[in-house]
Design a protein that fits this description.
Blueprint lengths: L1 E5 L2 E5 L2 H9 L7 E6 H6 L1 H4 L8 E6 L8 H13 L7 E6 L1 H13 L6 E5 L2 H7 L4 E6 L2 E8 L4 E4 L9 H18 L1 H7 L10 H18 L14 H11 L8 H20 L3 H15 L9 H8 L10 E5 L7 E6 L1 H13 L7
Parallel strand pairs: 2-9, 3-4, 3-5, 5-6
Antiparallel strand pairs: 1-2, 7-8, 10-11
Helix pairs in contact: 4-5, 6-7, 6-9, 7-8, 7-9, 7-11, 10-11, 10-13, 11-12, 11-14
Bound molecules: nicotinamide-adenine-dinucleotide (NAD), ligand LNCXM5UN and zinc ion.
Length: 358
């Protein structure tokens, strides 16, 4: 078992049974609730339930997926808690991916002004990124995570064994945040990862802790995103807009897939504005295209993208804010770009050749 500290809580990486026992020992909660979606109920709850033996718990099930990360689903969670008369010393256990973690944490932190919660992330994305750092929330009017708060869990319990049932597409989505961590802060890791061809044989148990360390260090330095934490948003100014629009179509993108598009566009902006070397831009572009293919974006959506970027949470005043790379492994926050430059970045992406299927 590996343990990292962050603020007032610990992140444990290892088999789920001992982690849960260690967490519950010596703590008292009047009731335990476990938030799941239909997939984590089927694939993760059977492995998790034995860890709670001797502790009665109530399952709260919500529908899976980003399209349900909204106030209506929060209402379902609050209703279940209210019907069970959950008190402020009840615990909500978020057993699932980033949607369960972000929304469960938000619902817990607002119910009766806040009940404790823990994160038990079951996707690659949530194990390296979403479960730590205390950013909680839901989507509103296509603007990702625009209603939310910062609030820390009592613990984060990561067991890479949960990944065994995750689809290849979801693994790829989580891998985008791992690539992001390497690009902003770990050039050595980026050098190793950009030659990794087969994700299905990757050693996630080794990659997860190394990636987590990047986020842990940045969040510890700036938990409320006043400065350096904005680095973790590389690829997200454009990526979130692309994700928000795609979510309303028949071909929604997963978070990491949209962030991969955003990272290509923002690498181009990094080249134009901060002198990211052309060769690095090419390596980033080619590797991301190889892993993610080339999801289509359309010129007819540019106005909507710009409108959504106008509501990016990093913005100050009217300017659209980016976190950009002067070099692989380095990042500069609070960069702005004009509308023309942003359109240049979207055009750069659109003119790229579609990679041949592998
Ligand atoms: N708070 C943060 O710092 C932060 C960071 C990154 C991303 N996010 C958010 O996280 C969300 C994306 O998270 P995600 O990619 O985990 O999505 P998700 O929670 O939708 O999970 C992806 C899919 O995998 C299923 N699933 C989960 N675990 C499984 C398992 N072990 N086996 C089989 N299926 C499983 C889920 O039911 C879902 O269908 C986005 O909303 C994004 O905005 C938040
Ligand atoms: O933890 C952070 O800070 C991040 O930016 C991590 C991102 O990967 C994540 O997608 C986060 O939810 C984005 O936050 P937002 O403030 O841009 O909504
Ligand atoms: Zn993200």
């Amino acid at each position: 078992m590996q343990t990292l500290a962050l603020g007032s809580y610990h992140i444990h990486i290892g088999p789920i049974g001992p982690s849960v026992s260690a967490f519950l020992k010596g703590r008292h909660f009047s009731q335990l609730f476990v938030l799941v979606d239909e997939n984590t109920k089927a694939h993760c709850w059977p492995a998790f339930a034995p860890a709670l033996s001797g502790y009665p718990s109530t399952l709260i099930e919500i529908p899976a997926g980003e399209t349900h990360k909204n106030i209506a689903t929060c209402q379902l969670i609050w209703e279940q808690l209210m019907k069970a008369s959950a008190a402020r010393d009840a615990l909500l256990i978020n057993l699932g991916g980033g949607v369960i973690g972000d929304m469960g944490g938000f619902a817990a932190s607002t119910f009766k002004r806040g009940i404790p919660f823990i994160q038990v992330p079951t996707t690659l994305l949530s194990q390296v990124d979403a479960s730590i750092g205390g950013k909680l929330g839901i989507d509103f009017m296509q603007v990702k995570n625009s209603i939310g708060l910062f609030s820390d869990p009592q613990a984060v319990l990561i067991d890479p064994a949960f990944l065994r049932t995750l689809s290849g597409r979801e693994i790829r989505s989580g891998y985008a945040e791992i690539l992001k961590h390497s690009l902003i802060a770990d050039a050595g890791q980026w050098g190793r990862l950009n030659t990794l061809a087969q994700l299905d044989t990757a050693e996630w148990s080794e990659i997860i802790p190394q990636s987590l360390l990047v986020k842990q260090r940045i969040v510890a330095a700036d938990p409320f995103e006043k400065g350096i934490r904005k680095a973790l948003n590389f690829g997200h100014t454009i990526g979130h807009a692309v994700e928000g629009i795609a979510l309303e179509t028949d071909t929604p993108l997963l978070h990491g897939e949209a962030i991969a598009v955003g990272m290509i566009c923002e690498a181009w902006l990094s080249h134009k504005k901060l002198g990211l070397p052309q060769e690095t831009l090419h390596t980033i572009t080619n590797y991301l295209l190889r892993v993610y293919g080339k999801p289509a974006i359309h010129k007819t959506d540019y106005t909507a993208y710009l409108q959504l970027m106008g509501n990016d949470k990093k913005n100050e005043g009217q300017a659209i804010n980016f976190s950009l790379l002067p070099a692989a492994g380095q990042v500069e926050v609070n960069c702005t770009a004009t509308q023309e430059q942003i359109i240049g970045a979207l055009d750069y992406y659109r003119q790229l050749p579609s990679p041949a299927p592998s």
